[in-house]
Design brief:
The chain is an alpha/beta fold and 286 residues long. It has 14 helices and seven strands. The protein has helices at 27-40, 51-63, 68-74, 81-94, 96-110, 141-152, 177-191, 197-201, 206-210, 217-233, 236-243, 249-253, 257-268, 272-285; strands spanning 3-4, 8-17, 44-47, 120-124, 127-133, 157-163, 172-176. Strands 1, 2, 3, 4, 5, 6 and 7 form a seven-stranded mixed beta sheet that branches. A hairpin with a 3-residue loop joins strand 1 (3-4) and strand 2.
Length: 286
C-alpha cells in the first residue's frame, strides 16, 4: 500500500495485458487467467480460500487455546493430511509471525461478515506476497480494512488485474477511508458488544471508533500485543491436558464420544462445555 491518511486510501494494482476485449472475459475467468500469468513468470501461486480455518489448527496447537470464535471457525475438526501439508507450505512461505498477524486481522474482519482474505499467495523471484483479484467491481469495504490492518502490522497486500484491448483498469484502488470506517463501525456494533469486546473476543473494538478521527498505528500494534498476551495467559485447557496424564489414553480413545465426555467430567470434575473443549483440543493435538 503506497499511501493512506485520515480520508484517502490508495492501493496499487499489478496489471497484465490481454488481447481480448473486456466483454469476452467474465470475472470468474480473470482469477484463473491471473494465476496462469503469474505461473508463466516463474511464481508459485497458492489459493487461500481456506487460509484461516487451516492455519488456526497450528495456532491452537501452539497456544493450546480455544474460544467460541475458533470453535465456530474449525467446526467439527477432523484430522486431514492435505490440510496439514497446506499449513506446512504456507508456514514456509510466510513465517509464523506473519501468519499469526494475518489470523488476527481475519478475526477482526470476520465481524464484518466476511474476513475477505486475499485470493492468492504468490512466491518466487525472491518475494512472497499476497494479492487480491480486482475485476472492476465496487471494492468491498472489508478488503479495504483488511489491507490497512495488515499494512499497519507490516504485511503488504496488493491488487492484481487485467487490461484489455478496449479497456484499461485504473492504476490504483482508491477509497474514502473515513467514510469506510463509519460503515465498518456500524457493522461491528450490530455483531458485537463493543463495551465487553475485549473480554468476549480479546479485542477492544472501540479502538476502531477512535480511528474515525485519526488512524492509530500504535493502537493497532498494542491491540495485537494484548490479544497475544490474553491467549498466552489462558492456561485452563493446558492445565486440563496435564491432568489427562492420569487417564489411560488407549482405553479412552476407543470409547465413543458420549462416553469420553462423561469420563472427562467424572475424572477431572469439569462441566460438559469444558469437557467438549478439551476433547476438541485433544483431537487437534493428535
Amino acid at each position: 500500500m503506497e499511501t493512506y491518511s485520515d480520508n484517502a486510501f490508495a492501493v496499487p494494482i499489478e496489471k497484465f495485458q490481454l488481447e481480448n476485449k473486456k466483454d469476452e472475459i467474465n470475472s470468474y475467468m480473470i482469477g484463473k487467467i491471473l494465476r496462469k500469468k503469474y505461473e508463466s513468470l516463474g511464481y508459485k501461486v497458492m489459493q487461500t480460500q481456506d487460509f484461516e480455518t487451516s492455519l488456526l489448527i497450528g495456532f491452537v496447537r501452539k497456544y493450546r487455546f480455544l474460544d467460541k470464535y475458533i470453535k465456530v471457525k474449525l467446526g467439527e475438526y477432523k484430522r486431514n493430511l492435505k490440510t496439514l501439508e497446506y499449513n506446512k507450505e504456507i508456514l514456509a512461505l510466510l513465517g509464523e509471525d506473519n501468519i499469526e498477524k494475518l489470523l488476527f486481522v481475519c478475526r477482526i474482519c470476520s465481524y464484518l461478515g466476511d474476513p475477505s482474505f486475499p485470493d492468492f499467495i504468490i512466491s518466487g523471484n525472491g518475494k512472497t506476497e499476497l494479492r487480491y483479484v480486482y475485476t472492476g467491481d465496487e471494492l468491498v469495504r472489508s478488503k479495504i480494512f483488511f489491507i490497512l490492518l495488515s499494512k499497519i502490522l507490516g504485511i503488504q497486500i496488493k491488487f492484481c488485474s487485467t487490461d484489455f484491448s478496449d479497456f484499461k483498469n485504473k492504476e490504483n484502488i482508491e477509497a474514502d477511508f473515513k467514510k469506510t470506517l463509519g460503515e465498518i463501525n456500524k457493522s461491528f456494533s450490530l455483531r458485537i458488544n463493543l463495551e465487553t469486546s475485549f473480554d468476549d473476543v480479546g479485542i477492544d473494538f472501540n479502538l476502531f471508533k477512535s480511528w474515525e478521527a485519526k488512524i492509530g498505528q500504535k493502537d493497532m500494534e498494542l491491540a495485537y500485543g494484548l490479544f497475544k498476551k490474553k491467549i498466552s495467559s489462558d492456561k485452563k485447557l493446558d492445565g486440563l491436558l496435564d491432568r489427562m496424564k492420569n487417564i489411560d489414553r488407549k482405553s479412552f480413545d476407543e470409547k465413543p464420544k458420549p462416553e469420553q465426555l462423561t469420563a472427562l467430567r467424572n475424572t477431572l470434575g469439569i462441566n460438559m462445555l469444558e469437557a467438549n473443549e478439551l476433547l476438541v483440543l485433544m483431537e487437534i493435538l493428535k
